[in-house]
Amino acid sequence: MTIEFSLSNRQRDTLAMVHQFAESVVRPQSLQWDRDHGVPHDFLRQIAMMAQSMGGGLVMGPGRSSGDEKEPSADEKKRRQPALSTVLGAEAMAWGDAGLLLCLPGAGLGGPPVRASGTPEQKKRFLSVFDDMSGELRWGAYALTEPGAGSDVAGIRTSCRKDGRHWVLNGRKCFITNGARASWNVVFATVDPALGRAGHRAFVVEKGTPGFSVGKIEDKMGLRASETAELVLEDCRVPEDNLLGGEDGYRTKEGFMTAMKTFDTTRPMVAAMALGIGRAAYEHAVAFVKEHYMLARSVPRYAAIAERLARVGRQLEGARMTTWRAAWLADQGQRNAKEASMCKAMAGGAAIRACIEAIEICGAEGSIAGDGRLLEKWFRDIKVYDIFEGTGQIQRIVIAKRLLPDLKSF
Amino acid sequence: MIAFEPSEEQKMVRDAVAQFADRTLRPRMREFERARALPPDVVAAAHAMGLPLAAFPEAVGGSGLGFVTQVLIEEELAAGDPAAAFALGGPGAYGWAALLLGGPDVAKELLAPFAGEAGASRVGAVAWGEPRAAQGRAGLATVAEKTASGWRLTGEKRYVLDAARAQSFIVFAQVDPAEGWRGVGAFVVPADARGLRVTARHETLGLDAASFGGVALDGVEVPAGARLPFGSESPNVVWLFATQALLVAARGVGLARAAFETTRAYAEQRKAFGKPIGHFQAVAFTLADRATDLEAARAMVWRAAWDWDQLAKSEGGKPDARQALLHTAWAVSYAHEAAMRAGDDAVQLHGGSGFMRDYPVEKWMRDAKQLGLCGMTAEHADQLAAAVALDKDLDPGLVLPSAETQSAFL
Ligand SMILES: Cc1cc2nc3c(=O)[nH]c(=O)nc-3n(C[C@H](O)[C@H](O)[C@H](O)COP(=O)(O)OP(=O)(O)OC[C@H]3O[C@@H](n4cnc5c(N)ncnc54)[C@H](O)[C@@H]3O)c2cc1C
């Protein structure tokens, strides 16, 4: 092993391509998608097919969705570094537009739990629906949050009870990304709230299942191109084959672990997206200062601005390094729960700071006029990165538990 | 490839240094502090391990292990005792100045006395800092005037690491007053040169075992060959200070680690209100943040060190030194601030005990502040980072420790 910071040829080529695409194709449409609350499906199809032809590597794209595809071997992971490549691509794409990433068809956040906990048949059945992107677009989604339980995952109240060869689900899910358009949602429910995590079950609830309906579509501060939905489950009858992992998987605390395992792979990715937005804002501010500030202001003012740019740049770099490391650990087959939380917390914080500072440095001219409006959008988009996939506070709890083994919770 | 694991060779070196730090430095840290020096046996042990010459290229008499290995070494030493990392003597910045400003032939000659058993007590020093700024012009107040056979140096130097121990100095002085910071030259001056007087040692806030002092130059005559042959447009002065600052940053990482680990253990064991203090969220979150700081700072230092190693390897080519400078500047400010936060929080979480010298944490807090003044400060590093980001000309005066900031320990 070594300590090294160069990209493989494959990573470099992919990254260059993604960047070029983000710059020339994505950026120019970004504001329009924000206003339209969505990305045109034709465009999404185009990207999806492109990603597929590249064999994945683009974030959350459908490339790795196929149920037939075998998990890469440990050696292959070390060599090809799928997690690292993903965070590199995620940063570059989010730099173009973060909302687009969440709109991309494919299993999305629903993919990791199915891959991690699904039986071979389930993987094939649920993931293969994304194999053909030429026709109707399809999404998967991940439905954990409820009106009464977000951070406190163990406190979900959506109930499930066995009835013959079906499970009957009752409850509400909220803030579910792509929940309404999804072909299926991974829905978390409990057999008995008193059992806590041991009572949790994860179901793949397909669109059209009797008793499943979509409630409100949220109107949000940012990421407005992305759909965020409320899901309603009223005596929703889910076939027993849709219990993720089958009943054997729940003899222990596995139900909850399914929910949590997911985060170890998704958090670095979410961190990388935050970094993409943060870097966009940072670069915008640097360009603005170059053009407007240089030598036109007195020295103390200039020094203060320089200090702020440096601070933003370094916080992003620190977060980027922790993100790379968390992803690298995943590729090495090592535990990374602590590091995944570290990078998520740090990236969210750093990128929000980047957007706030950039707005302050660029002022009205640089943040709401002309191209500057992108900065205003990034400011709105970024905040949620310190909220979803576990808030900054929750990340600190995850880290602290790993620093202090006796600590149960707060 | 991106990778975060030291090579087998690096691990061997690191583990050996860690053992030395653990067995020899940490237990005797307070003894060194009281003595305001490292005892000869400790210096000799480090010399015997080859630490002082480890990173220098083989061509100039070093072990050729490079900067990445060197930052691993620095972190371990500082985790044992931050002051010891500064007080080991050897060539240090003097050797790097010889290499970067003098070239391989000069470096080979100046490094030769540091090799072998006789070299154990050999110390080189760089005299840069000054008590007062030059009046009415940019540049150093100390001047070098041309004589028939060489140069005459006149001025006063302060904050010189190992002023009282060095057998030889590299003294920076203004050669061409009209050229500002670009008109600075560097001269090899033996400690017993006529007209050179070592002035009183400074009493410092921290890092007491390291000796910082002054040098008065009263018309010191040196031959023409004593001047290191770098030109006024050479970027190497900035490179020298940047790379030295990176080594200090690596010590900051070691310091932060020591403070964090000690505090983490204390938070598990110290009880208040019936439970370990670490089980209170305010304390646990603080620990989580410091742990994250440590991860980020270390990875940033590694990346910058890797950049410099790449640069050293790519002789002749036009490698991107600005990238190395940017990563270095970010790493330096981040690590300095992370070390300070670690020291501060360590005392805070120890409560009143932390204030007492029975516990190590107050020392680390003092050391952290002192460390931040050694060479490039966080403020300087921020200016450097911004200058690179904004495509500014990298005038040495922009970033180098100077009389205005009174920070020039090198
Ligand atoms: C745009 C968007 C998309 C989303 N997509 C999805 C999705 O696809 N699937 C899904 O399941 N969910 C999704 N979510 C939900 C998201 O994961 C939750 O909003 C998040 O986990 C926080 O939960 P909450 O909103 O209930 O806040 P709460 O849990 O009520 O938290 C409120 C505040 O209290 C703090 N807090 C809570 N507990 C503690 C504690 N123990 N210690 C200290 N502080 C604490 C939190 O940090 C936060 O600041 C999405 C949310 C948004 C905004």
The average pLDDT score of chain B comes to 94
Q: What does the oligomeric state look like here?
A: heterodimer
Strand percentage of chain A = 5-15%
Chains forming the largest contact: A-B, 51 and 52 residues
**Highest CATH level, the class of the largest domain in chain B:** Mainly Alpha
Q: Determine the structural class of chain A based on helices, strands and strand pairing.
A: alpha+beta
Count up the domains of chain B: 3
End-to-end CA span of chain A:
39 Å
Bound molecules: flavin-adenine dinucleotide
Euclidean distance between termini CA atoms of chain B: 34 Å
Most strands sheet of chain B: 4 strands, antiparallel
**CATH architecture descriptor text of the largest domain in chain A:** Up-down Bundle
Helix/strand/pairing class of chain B, anyone?
A: alpha+beta
Structure description:
- The complex is a heterodimer of chains A (410) and B (410).
- Chain A has helices at 9-36, 41-53, 74-80, 82-96, 98-103, 111-117, 120-127, 254-292, 299-331, 337-367, 373-382, 392-403; strands spanning 3-5, 140-143, 159-163, 166-177, 184-190, 200-206, 212-217, 228-239.
- Chain A has 410 residues and is an alpha+beta fold.
- Chain A has 3 domains: 9-130, Butyryl-Coa Dehydrogenase, subunit A, domain 1, CATH 1.10.540; 140-252, Butyryl-CoA Dehydrogenase, subunit A, domain 2; 255-403, Butyryl-CoA Dehydrogenase, subunit A, domain 3, CATH 1.20.140.
- Chain A has a 4-stranded antiparallel β-sheet, with no helix packed on it. A 3-stranded mixed β-sheet of chain A has the order 2-5-6, with helices on one face.
- In chain A, a hairpin with a 2-residue loop joins strand 3 and strand 4.
- In chain A, helix 6 (111-117) runs antiparallel to helix 8 (254-292) and helix 9 packs antiparallel against helix 10 (337-367).
- Chain A is globular, with a radius of gyration of 21 Å.
- The two termini of chain A are 39 Å apart.
- The relative contact order of chain A is 0.11.
- The model of chain A is unreliable at 57-65 (pLDDT under 50).
- Chain B is α+β, with helices and mostly antiparallel strands.
- Chain B folds into 3 domains: 8-121, Acyl-CoA dehydrogenase/oxidase, N-terminal domain (Butyryl-Coa Dehydrogenase, subunit A, domain 1); 124-226, Butyryl-CoA Dehydrogenase, subunit A, domain 2 (Beta Barrel), CATH 2.40.110.10; 236-399, Butyryl-CoA Dehydrogenase, subunit A, domain 3 (Up-down Bundle).
- Chain B is 49% helix and 14% strand.
- Chain B is built from 14 helices and 10 strands.
- In chain B, the strands form 3 sheets. In chain B, strands 3-4-8-7 form a 4-stranded antiparallel β-sheet, with no helix packed on it. Chain B has a 3-stranded mixed β-sheet with strand order 2-5-6, covered by helices on one side. A two-stranded antiparallel ribbon of chain B has the order 9-10.
- In chain B, strand 3 (143-146) and strand 4 (150-161) form a beta hairpin.
- In chain B, helix 4 packs across helix 8 (236-269), helix 8 packs parallel to helix 10 (321-350) and helix 8 packs antiparallel against helix 12.
- The radius of gyration of chain B is 21 Å and the shape is globular.
- The two termini of chain B are 34 Å apart.
- The mean pLDDT of chain B is 94.
- Flavin-adenine dinucleotide is lined by residues 109, 141-145, 150-152, 175-177, 220, 223, 228, 384, 387-388, 390-391, 393-394, 410 of chain A.
